[in-house]
Design goal:
heterodimer, A: 164 residues, mainly alpha, Rna Polymerase Sigma Factor, Chain: A, Arc Repressor Mutant, subunit A, 2 domains, 74% helix, B: 217 residues, 9 helices, 80% helix
Chain lengths: 164, 217
C-alpha cells in the first residue's frame, strides 16, 4: 500500500516538478540552495500527500505547499555564493531569441524581482503563473482586493525600476 | 507591449530550460529529514521540556544530599509544594504544546500557517518564562531559608568544626550573595540563550507574517 502511494506520489511530482523548480528559482540564489529548497518542498509535499484527496488538481495543491515551504517553513542556508553566475545560467540562456533591448529589460526585471520580499515574490510568482486573484488570495490568506492592490503596487514598483 | 506581459511570456517560455530530476532523485529525497522551522521548534522544545528533568537524574543531585540541606534550612515542605505545582503546570504546558503543534498544517493558507507557528512558539516561550521564574522562586526560598537559620553549621555536618570557627554573620552574607548571584546569572544565561535561539529562528517568519498582516489594513 505504502509502496503504491510512494510510486504514485513520485510519478506525479516528477511530472509536475517544474512548479517546484520555478519556486526555487525565485527564492534561492545558488544551485545548492535551489537543491536544498527543492528537497524541503518535496518532504513537505510527501508528508501532506496522504491528505491530498484529489479534490483539486495535484498542481494546484502543489502551489500552496511549495509557497508555504518557501516563505514560512524554509530556513535559508547561511552560505551565500555569488549570485551572478547562477542567474546568468537560468535567465540569460536564450539570448539569441531576443533583441538586445528586450533581453536587457528582462534581465533587469528579474534582478528587480529577486530583490523583492518573500511575500511580494509569492504574488509575482502567482501572477507569472497566470493564476487569478482568487487563487492568490486563497493561498496567501489575504483578501482578493488586497491581493490586487498589492500586485498593482508591485507592478508600479517594477516599472519605475525599468524606467527611472 | 507591456513589460510585464513580456516578462510573463518569457517566464513561461523558460520552463524548457529548468532542471529535470529523475524518478530516483525524487524518491531518494522524500525520505530525507526535514529541516523546516517547525521541526526545529519541536526539537528545541523537547529539549527545553526534558533538560531540567535530566539534571535531577544525575546521581549527585539524587543522593538526597541537597534535600537534607533544605530540611536543615526548614524549607523542605514549601519546596515540595512548589515542585508539585511546577510539575502540574509543566504538564499543562506540554499538553498545550502538543495540541498546538498538531494543528500546524502546510495545507493552510500562508497567513494561518504562520499564525499557528507563532502561537505554538509562544506556548514554549511562556513555558520558558515560567520555568525561569520557578528557578528564581527556588533561589528566593533558599535565600529566605538561609536568612532565617541561626546555626548554619548544621547544613554541612562534616565541616561543622571548621564552619564554627568562621564568623557566623559573615558566612551568612557570603552564602546569600553567592547564591543570589549564581541564581541571577543562571536565569539571565538560560533566558538569553533561549531568546537568541528563537529570535534567529523566527526572524524570517515573523517578518513575512507582519508583511501579510499589514496587507490586510
Amino acid at each position: 500500500m505504502n509502496k503504491e502511494l510512494e510510486h504514485q506520489f513520485v510519478t506525479e511530482l516528477q511530472d509536475n516538478q517544474n512548479i517546484v523548480h520555478k519556486v526555487c528559482t525565485l527564492y534561492t540564489n545558488d544551485q545548492d540552495a535551489h537543491k536544498d529548497l527543492f528537497q524541503e518542498i518535496t518532504i513537505q509535499l510527501w508528508k501532506a500527500y496522504p491528505k491530498f484527496r484529489g479534490e483539486s488538481k495535484f498542481s494546484t495543491w502543489m502551489y500552496r505547499v511549495a509557497l508555504n515551504t518557501a516563505i514560512t517553513l524554509y530556513r535559508k542556508s547561511k552560505k551565500r555564493i555569488d549570485t551572478h553566475n547562477y542567474e546568468s545560467v537560468i535567465f540569460k540562456i536564450k539570448a539569441e531569441e531576443y533583441d538586445e533591448t528586450e533581453e536587457q529589460q528582462l534581465s533587469l526585471m528579474y534582478q528587480a524581482i529577486r530583490q523583492l520580499g518573500d511575500i511580494d515574490k509569492a504574488l509575482v510568482f502567482m501572477y507569472l503563473e497566470d493564476k487569478n486573484y482568487s487563487e492568490i488570495s486563497e493561498v496567501l490568506g489575504i483578501t482578493e482586493v488586497n491581493a490586487r492592490v498589492k500586485m498593482n503596487r508591485i507592478k508600479t514598483k517594477l516599472r519605475t525600476i525599468l524606467n527611472p | 507591449m507591456d513589460e510585464l506581459d513580456l516578462l510573463k511570456r518569457d517566464w513561461q517560455k523558460k520552463e524548457a530550460h529548468l532542471p529535470q530530476l529523475s524518478y530516483a532523485d525524487i524518491q531518494e529525497m522524500i525520505w530525507k529529514r526535514s529541516s523546516s522551522i517547525v521541526r526545529w521548534i519541536l526539537v528545541i522544545s523537547i529539549l527545553e521540556f526534558t533538560l531540567p528533568h535530566v539534571i535531577y537524574l544525575l546521581p549527585s543531585v539524587r543522593s538526597g544530599e541537597g534535600f537534607k540541606i533544605y530540611e536543615a534550612l526548614g524549607i523542605s515542605k514549601i519546596l515540595f509544594v512548589v515542585s508539585i505545582a511546577y510539575y502540574l503546570v509543566a504538564l499543562y504546558f506540554i499538553f498545550q504544546f502538543y495540541r498546538r503543534f498538531k494543528e500546524i498544517s502546510v495545507l493552510e493558507n500562508s497567513r494561518t500557517l504562520m499564525r499557528k507557528i507563532i502561537r505554538t512558539r509562544r506556548t514554549v516561550k511562556h513555558y520558558v518564562i515560567f520555568a525561569l521564574s520557578t528557578i528564581v522562586l527556588f533561589v528566593i526560598i533558599t535565600l529566605f531559608g538561609i536568612y532565617t537559620t541561626s546555626d548554619l553549621s548544621t547544613l554541612f555536618p562534616e565541616m561543622a568544626v571548621s564552619i564554627k570557627k568562621l564568623d557566623a554573620e559573615e558566612l551568612k552574607m557570603t552564602l546569600l550573595v553567592t547564591i543570589a548571584l549564581f541564581g541571577a546569572i543562571l536565569t539571565v544565561l538560560v533566558g538569553g540563550i533561549y531568546f537568541l535561539l528563537y529570535g534567529l529562528l523566527m526572524r524570517k517568519l515573523k517578518r513575512n507574517y507582519h508583511e501579510l498582516k499589514r496587507l490586510e489594513f
